[in-house]
Design goal:
By secondary structure, the chain is an alpha/beta fold. The protein has a single domain (2-185), classed as TIM Barrel (Alpha-Beta Barrel). It has eight helices and eight strands; from the N terminus they run βαβααβαββαβαβαβα. Helix 7 (163-167) links the parallel strand 7 (148-151) and strand 8 (171-174). The chain is globular. The structure holds cytidine-5'-monophosphate. Cytidine-5'-monophosphate is lined by residues 7, 9, 30, 32, 56, 100, 103-104, 127, 129, 152-153, 155-157, 173-177. Pathway: Pyrimidine metabolism; UMP biosynthesis via de novo pathway; UMP from orotate: step 2/2. InterPro entries: Aldolase_TIM, OMPdecase, OMPdeCOase_dom, RibuloseP-bd_barrel. It is an enzyme of class 4 (lyase).
C-alpha cells in the first residue's frame, strides 16, 4: 500500500475503472461533488467495496445538517467526510470528520489556519496543503501523532510526490496526476505514512 488517496474527480465509469486498477496499491479514494452530482450515493456504495472512501463535500453548515450528511455518507460505506475548519467551533469531536485547516490555493485560511490546527486533534485528522510542505510540518508539530494528516496539491497543483509525506503527512491526496496516468503510482513506492496506517 502506498500512502496515497486517489481523488476521483471524474465521471463514474472512469472512477470505477481507476479504483479497480489501483485498489491494491493505494490507501483509499476520495469522492467529491463530481461523482455525487452524477449518481448520488451510488458511487460511495460501489467504490467503498473496493477500498476506504473519504467523502469531500467540504461541509460548512450548522452541526445538525453536517451530522445528517455525515450519517448518510457513512451509512453508504465511507469512513468519513471533510468539513471546513471554519465551522470547527460549533462541532462536537467526531472521528468521522477530517477538518480542512488550509487550502492548496490562496484563501482567507491563509490568515487563520494556525488558529484551527489545535482543534483538528478532536477529529479524525487535518487536511493540509501538500503543495506547501512547511504548513504540513507545522501541523504535524502541533498535532503530534494524535490525528491523521492528509494532503492534496500533489502533481497538478505543483507538489512533488512524497513532498508532503516527508514533511509529516500520512497520506497524499492525488487527483489529476494519477487519473491521467495511473502507472505514476510507482512514484510513491518507497514512501510510508508518518504516523497512521489507515485513512
Ligand atoms: O487533481 P488534484 O490532485 O489537484 O486534486 C486535488 C483534490 O484535492 C481535489 O479533489 C480537491 O477538491 C481536493 N482539495 C484540494 N485542496 C484542499 C482540499 C481539497 O485540492 N485544500
Amino acid at each position: 500500500m502506498r500512502p496515497v488517496i486517489v481523488a476521483l474527480d471524474t465521471d463514474l465509469k472512469r472512477a470505477l475503472s481507476i479504483a479497480e486498477q489501483l485498489r491494491e496499491e493505494v490507501a483509499g479514494f476520495k469522492i467529491g461533488w463530481d461523482l455525487v452530482l452524477e449518481a448520488g450515493l451510488d458511487p460511495i456504495r460501489r467504490i467503498s467495496k473496493l477500498g476506504q472512501v473519504i467523502v469531500d463535500l467540504k461541509l460548512a453548515d450548522i452541526p445538525y445538517v453536517v451530522n445528517r450528511v455525515v450519517n448518510k455518507v457513512v451509512e453508504a460505506g465511507a469512513c468519513c467526510a471533510i468539513a471546513h475548519g471554519l465551522i470547527a467551533p460549533s462541532l462536537e469531536p467526531d472521528q468521522r470528520i477530517y477538518l480542512l485547516v488550509r487550502m492548496t490555493t490562496p484563501t482567507l485560511y491563509d490568515d487563520l489556519w494556525r488558529q484551527l490546527v489545535p482543534t483538528a486533534g478532536k477529529f479524525r485528522g487535518a487536511v493540509a496543503p501538500g503543495n506547501a510542505p512547511s504548513t504540513v510540518a507545522e501541523v504535524r508539530k502541533v498535532l503530534g501523532c494524535s490525528a491523521r494528516i492528509i494532503s492534496p496539491g500533489i502533481g497538478a497543483q505543483g507538489g512533488k510526490p512524497g513532498d508532503a509525506i516527508r514533511a509529516g503527512a500520512d497520506f497524499e491526496i492525488v487527483g489529476r496526476y494519477l487519473i491521467e496516468e495511473p502507472s505514476r503510482i510507482s512514484q510513491w513506492d518507497k514512501l510510508k505514512p508518518t504516523c497512521w496506517n489507515s485513512i
